[in-house]
Design goal:
A four-stranded antiparallel sheet has the order 1-2-4-3, covered by helices on one side. Helix 2 runs antiparallel to helix 4. Helix content is 35%, strand content 22%. It starts with a helix and ends in a 7-residue tail after the last strand. It is of the alpha+beta class and 117 residues long. Strand 3 and strand 4 form a beta hairpin.
Length: 117
């Protein structure tokens, strides 16, 4: 996050980016890699200062049926953990999608300029 803040990718949006990144990392560690210390999580970040940031988090898990989670949204069961992280990522980032059968999440945040309407 220090690198992202220093690069000024999307100034003023660091909180949203950090929250989404933390959720993606937790999902990768807990759900993807099943908390197996032998498995790795890879993070790629591309920054266009003042314009946008793109982050890709990849785990070594078997993936999941992300279309069902995204389609059904957050479960009504307050004890269930499934889907909450995805919903938070979608709430704070401008684009969130999954690849590699769900073992890779792509997130993008754009710098917002004032509306000209």
């Amino acid at each position: 996050m220090r690198l992202i803040e220093g690069a000024q990718c999307v100034p003023g949006k660091e909180f949203e980016i950090e929250l989404a990144l933390r959720e993606a990392l937790e999902n990768a560690l807990v759900h993807g890699n099943q908390e197996n210390p032998e498995r790795k999580v890879h993070v790629r970040c591309r920054c266009q200062p003042g314009n946008e940031i793109s982050i890709v988090v990849t785990d070594q898990g078997k993936g999941f049926d992300f279309e069902t989670i995204v389609r059904n949204g957050v479960t009504s069961d307050p004890d269930s953990e499934h889907g909450r992280g995805i919903q938070l990522m979608k709430a704070y980032m401008d684009d969130v999608h999954f690849e590699r059968g769900g073992s890779e999440v792509h997130m993008r945040k754009l710098a917002r300029t004032t509306s000209h309407s």
